């Protein structure tokens, strides 16, 4: 098979790509008592997927991605609380627009820098939003956030129930599916290929005439909008929003850990990372309520030492070894 | 008649260090021109000034009489100036095919296209495959750059530059690292370029320079030391004493 045919084959939809979605649907029936947890996993996958677009594909290292998750979460919260706008889908759209606008505005400034300066500035952007949410208590609820939010039925048929999460789970799954389709299309497109080029060699991308910064800003904006959708889903599914839950370094660093665990720049790394991270967190917290973070730390050290490309990278390496030299 | 690429009084300083000193240079349409000089003469800096990687301290760069001095690198590429690098600058985690596809996509203006899978763009894939075959890289097309020997990577550098279909092609030591048994691939590739493309080559391999070039400029300490046909340069005693003597005897 020649390289061009191989590239075309890699970009085609493969049969096993249906498996995560079939498994997700199966979970709905198999684990009805864990749907609240599973909904959080789906939201985390979407958030990690949005980060993967900038970190894994465009090579933009950020510690402030929670800014966009928070912006989306607060957008639907404030719309529902103050304007009575609680229709779910249009709420998601509004969250995407607000988070995307913040991504565009901050990206135009921040992406002039790189390395440590960029890392610090992304963190500062998130800290600014965190403080804004804290200080604008009249709109945001301040430190206490906005509890007890209610949203209208999905498509006028399925109500949100914070006790059973059946609707929330299917709703989050549908939104994740649509967002995943968008991300998949993007990364396999010429645009996605050029983002990978930017990550791999910035100097060369300039030398082939690519408008590097415009592409980075665009990717950053799209990623911010997707993170905003994830944040909005969080608010809608749980019926509340607060600074501790949606903003802060812990949220930003946590999602980076998810991606490192799963494998960044690998599309399905977000899925694997989110499941592994949240299962570990859940099981360790249950077994060792006071020292569960120790177990997570040990796992991370093991991944950093022995599986630098995450769980998916580990399987890739194994598959290459089994296939033998090309 | 206007030159394809011209510099007028081009200067570049880093503090007190002058790396380009009042360089007046003409690259004619369809030229096969070589730029030679000892290490540290400012040859790569000169290429960086031509391509917009570095802004000059003074002077101007003209492409077919149009002043492009203030244009950023990407826009100069769009106007037809392409280059290779002295040290490979490739997408190491991607395959040879993907490396060349990225360049071809940018030239065709589809690099920002978001809807169609890159693997389904027959126009891009076909052209990339043609260039890869031209440089005898066909059997390596599906391999990642990091898995290739350095010499093969040099050929990918050239394939990427050719994928931009330049009007001016600047080759910075293209033969460095290519085994002598494969250097003919490079020369064959250059020989098959359309005659209206102007090629400027920086090279230390004098055998290659004298086979390739119709005109040679010698750069010493950032300034033009001599210019002429290969015969004139080879017969220039001063050039032999500052550079060629050692290079030809090496």
Would you write up a description of this structure?
The complex is a heterodimer of chains A (326) and B (250). With 326 residues, chain A is mostly helical. Chain A has a domain at 20-246. Helix content of chain A is 74%, strand content 0%. Chain A has helices at 3-11, 19-30, 35-57, 66-82, 88-110, 115-135, 137-140, 166-188, 190-200, 202-207, 212-238, 243-246, 249-262, 269-287, 292-306, 310-323. Chain B is an alpha/beta fold and 250 residues long. Chain B folds into two domains: 1-80 and 167-250, 3-Layer(aba) Sandwich (Rossmann fold); 91-165, no CATH class. Chain B has helices at 43-51, 73-79, 96-108, 122-134, 150-163, 183-191, 206-212, 230-234, 237-249, and strands at 5-14, 17-27, 32-36, 58-63, 66-67, 81-83, 168-172, 198-202, 215-220, 223-228. In chain B, strands 6-7-8-3-9-10 form a six-stranded mixed beta sheet, with helices on both faces. Chain B has a four-stranded antiparallel beta sheet with strand order 2-1-4-5, covered by helices on one side. In chain B, helix 3 (96-108) packs parallel to helix 5 (150-163) and helix 4 (122-134) crosses helix 5 (150-163). Chain B is globular, with a radius of gyration of 18 Å. Classes of the chains: A mainly alpha (326), B alpha/beta (250). Chain A binds chain B through residues 1-4, 6-12, 185-186, 188-194, 196-197, 200-201, 203-212, 215, 218, 326, and chain B through 51, 53, 73-75, 77-78, 82-83, 85, 89-98, 101-103, 105-107, 110-121, 124-126, 128-129, 132, 138, 141-143, 147, 160, 163-164.
